[in-house]
Every structure is written in structure tokens, then in C-alpha cells.
């Protein structure tokens, strides 16, 4: 008899992952903390051109890169003399399923089809479920989405409920769960029982699919403006968005472009808390995912996470919920683009950064997402009010996650709060020491950690010494 207890299923996780991906992570592993990252990424066997061709077949990629003329003018009107960088946005809402997540799902769907799987399974509360369902439909594959939707009172955020609807519209079966630890357990059980492909967000296929996004941005900016983008602002949650985009930029020669992570500041709200689950007005792109995944990426549903954001991060900025809702309205009113708040998280930081950058510089907002129904910011604000969260105009510095959403009154109130990357690096190294004692680290471990924190071996040794 198969042991389907929680402990029994977790004990088989590596075996389940191996059979559901056709990928043996043991081939790349060196120690409990280090592995051959580039070899793992290369194991897909696909070049950038291969991926672009695969994506074209299923309505993904080559999305428009819009210059936001009116928003740039508004920034320059309040910026110091000579400041106010040109702002561009990559409109990923043009992809099938309406977000950049279609890029992550496209290669997984192709790989599943090529390997003879009959269907795909993914665990997500975000746009990725709809992306997997859309790509599976185009490849003639079945799709199951395991999704955290409700709190213990069976109340779901309007944005998450809308994403369930989108998954079902594309033909997926959605297994709807309440918030809690059972998500990964149900995913493993479903993979084992169906024999379907694991379309995890964090496989090499998922990250390689996003590399075309960075490559398209880099190529088009260089062709149109004769220079690399100075800054690319990326909404940061689990890290795949930033990792894939940065890798794609580097592959087309944009080695001086600064890749900046942006998250909504939800400090004080715990993502696994039944109470806090519906007191946040953002389901992705916030610090509840962004910080933990940056400081220990291997907390995911595969043995080794291909999304390693700290490795590619040149800066990390926080914005408030109210600022993002304000920029969502402003994008609509000034540029005629009604897009969802998640992508506008990076837009908010881009505007604040543009105010301090020179006029001849370029900042690119790396993605947009579709909006409407429960994903619309008005739905989120109404839901917040119904939960007795105060929504008002004023100084966004007064925002208190889960209690108050303060929407700016003027554009010059939009700002960012930088996170100290050295603190994130120290947290990462401390976690590595908990997984594998410092005294047992090899030179290879130290070199891997140095690459993973975008630092040096001496920096890793210094941080490790402080732990002892």
C-alpha cells in the first residue's frame, strides 16, 4: 500500500519530482547548498531563438514596448532641472492569457508535449495558473491548477477568485484550497496520481521562457535609442521574473543595465496566516514573497530553484499599496492603458527613480498584466473597505499594511524605500549555514554562495565568520 500520509508523500518528493519533470536534479548537486546552476539551466537544450520560435506558435512574445510620453512629461514637470528619465513599458498583457507568465508556461507546455505527458499540473494563486491553462489548451494537454483561494471562512480575495475563473475559462480543473501548508502536499499527490508534467514556476524551463522578455527589451531599446536601458524595474515576488529578465538582457549585451527589484511593502503581514491572508490587497509582487525568496530561493516545489533573484539584483525598492493604486489610475488617465496593479508595482518605482535620473537616461517597466473583474484595483479597494481597512487620500508614508491604504494626492508623493542588499545577503548566508554547517563548506560551496548573493568569496567568508 502506498503511504499517502503527509510524511509519506514528503518522503517521496524527489522521486515524484523526477518522474514528473524528466529532470534529475542529483546530476547537478554538489552539496546540500551548492549545485551547478549554469549546467542546470543549459539542460533545457533550448537557445533563445528556439524559445522565441516555440513561443510564437502559442501567441507569446514580441509584445509592444511603449514609450510613456505623457507620464514622462508629468515626471519632468516636477523633477529637478535636467532630471526626468524617459519611461518605457513592455506591454506583456498582449500575451495569450494576459501576462508575462505565458512565457514561463510556454516552454513547460512544449516540453510536456514533447515528452509525451498527457497533462500539466501547477500550484499557484496567481496569473501563472491561467498561463499554464492557456498554453496547455493550445498544446492539447489537460491541466490541473492547485490554488490557495480562501481563508478558513471560505472568503476569497476578488483577485484570486478572478484568477480561478480565468483558469477554468481556459479549460483547467482548479483544486481550490484554503491557505495553509497543504498546498505542496496536494500538488505532490496530484502529480503522483495523474502522471502529469510538473509545470512548476521554478524549473529551468520556466525561467528560460522569461529570458526572451529581457532579450526583447534589450534589443529594442538598443535599436530604437542607440543605447542600453539604464534601469529595468521588475516586480519581484518569487524571483523568476527578475532572474529570467536579467539573464535575457545579458544575453543580448546589456551588461551595464541595472536590474532593480520592486515589491509592495506588506511588512507585518504573514503570508501563511489565515487572518492576514485577506488583509493584504496584493496577491503577488509583495515583500511576503519577495524577501523570503531572495534570502533563500530553495523554499519551493522543486529540489533546486532556477529563480535566484539575489544573484542578478542591482537594487531592491519597496513601494506602498496606495502608491501602486495611484499609479494604476494615472497610467489609465494619462496613457490610456488600463492594466493590473501587479505590473504597476514596478511602474511606481520607475516613476520615482526617473525623477532622480538624467533626462537622456531610459528606465523600462518590464511588464504589464491584464485587468478587469476581481483583478481591478477598485475591486481590491472595495474588498479592503469591507474588511474595515481604512482607505483614504494623503501621505503614503502613513500606509500601514492590513490597516490603512493611503493613496497619494500628488505625483511628487510617489517614492521608493530601498532595501539594504547587504542585509539580504547576510540573511541568505545565515540560512545556508543552517542547512549545511559552515565548517563543512568547501571552496566550491563558498564560490557558489558568492555568485548567489552577487558578491565575492571573501564577502561570504566574512558573513559566515559573523555567524559562528
Automatic annotation (TrEMBL):
InterPro entries the UniProt entry points to: AKP_thiolase_beta, Cys_Synth/Cystath_Beta-Synth, TrpB-like_PALP, TrpB-like_PALP_sf
Keywords: Lyase, Pyridoxal phosphate
Residue ranges that the Swiss-Prot or TrEMBL entry lists as coiled coil: none
Gene Ontology terms, MF aspect: lyase activity
Pfam families recorded: PALP
Required co-factors: pyridoxal 5'-phosphate
Biological processes, Gene Ontology terms: alpha-amino acid metabolic process
Keyword Lyase among record annotations: yes
The keyword Lyase belongs to this UniProt entry's keyword annotation: yes
Annotated ranges, domain Tryptophan synthase beta chain-like PALP: 59-365
Domain of life: Bacteria
Protein name per UniProt: PLP-dependent lyase/thiolase
